[in-house]
Amino acid sequence: MFCVLLVGAVLAVAVSSADGGDVLFREDFNDLSQWEASHFPKIDRHSAYSIVHDDSGSYLQAASDASASAILYKERFDAGRYPRVRWRWKIEKVYEKGNAAEKAGDDYPIRIYIVFQYDPAEASIADRLTFGLAKTVYGEYPPHSSLNYIWANRAPVGTVMANPYTARARMIVLESGNGNAGEWVDEEIDIRGDYRIAFGASPPPIAGIAIMNDSDNTGEGSVSYVDFIEVFR
C-alpha cells in the first residue's frame, strides 16, 4: 500500500561515533520517545509497535495482523551531508500473498522508508498545485518522494521498482523470501546513490525515516524486529 508519511519538523544534531566516523544519530530502541505513530485514512486496524527487552538488549517489535500503520522518527536530517544509513532487522516470515508488483500484494513484514521533504520553492507550477491540494487535506505537505527498502516475498534482491500506488515512491528489495527469516540481517544503504538509480536525479536534501509492517492488502500477519538504525557519513 502507498501511505502519505508526513516528515517531522526538527533537524537532527551530529555526534561522534566510537570508531571516529561522523554519526548524525543512532536509535537503539530503548524506548519509542523519538517516534510517533502514523495512521492512515480508511484503515481501521493498526499495526502494533513496541519495545522488547531481553538479555541481549532492546529492540523494536513490529506486529501486523491484516493491519497497517507506521512509526516516524521525529527529527529530519540533511541527506546530502549524511547520506548513509545502516540497520539490523529480522522477520518471522514473509507474506505468502505478497507481490511487490501489484496493489493487492503490496505488503511487507518490514520496510524502512527514507522520506524526502517537498520544497515549494523548488517545485514546478504543476507540483505546487498538486501538493497545495494535498496540504488542504492533510494539513501539511506530503513528501516529495521516498525510497522504500523492503523485505519482499519473491522479488529478486536488488530490484528497484515504482510502488504500484504511486511513481513518487520507489521500492528497493534488500531481502527476499524466508531464507533468512528468524535471523538478524545487517543492511547499509547509500541514499544519494540509490535515489539516482531509482529516480534518475539527485535527492531533495531534507529527509526523514519511517518504519512499517503492513498486511492490510493480503490480510495476513507477521512479526518483525529492528535492532538499531544509524544515520552517518
Structure description:
- This protein is mainly beta and 233 residues long.
- The protein has a single domain, classed as Sandwich (Jelly Rolls).
- It has two helices and 16 strands.
- It has helices at 125-138, 191-199; strands at 10-11, 15-16, 22-27, 35-38, 48-54, 57-65, 70-73, 75-78, 84-91, 108-116, 145-152, 160-163, 166-176, 185-190, 206-214, 221-232.
- Mean pLDDT is 86; it is low at 15-20 and 130-139.
What is this entry, summarized?
The protein is mainly β. The chain is built from two helices and 16 strands. The protein has helices spanning about 125-140, 190-200, and strands at about 10, 15, 20-25, 35-40, 50-55, 55-65, 70-75, 75-80, 85-90, 110-115, 145-150, 160-165, 165-175, 185-190, 205-215, 220-230.
Question: Topology, pairings included?
Answer:
Layout (H helix, E strand, L loop, with lengths): L9 E2 L3 E2 L5 E6 L7 E4 L9 E7 L2 E9 L4 E4 L1 E4 L5 E8 L16 E9 L8 H14 L6 E8 L7 E4 L2 E11 L8 E6 H9 L6 E9 L6 E12 L1
Parallel strand pairs: 1-8, 11-13
Antiparallel strand pairs: 2-3, 3-16, 4-7, 5-6, 6-16, 7-15, 8-15, 9-14, 9-16, 10-11, 10-15, 12-13
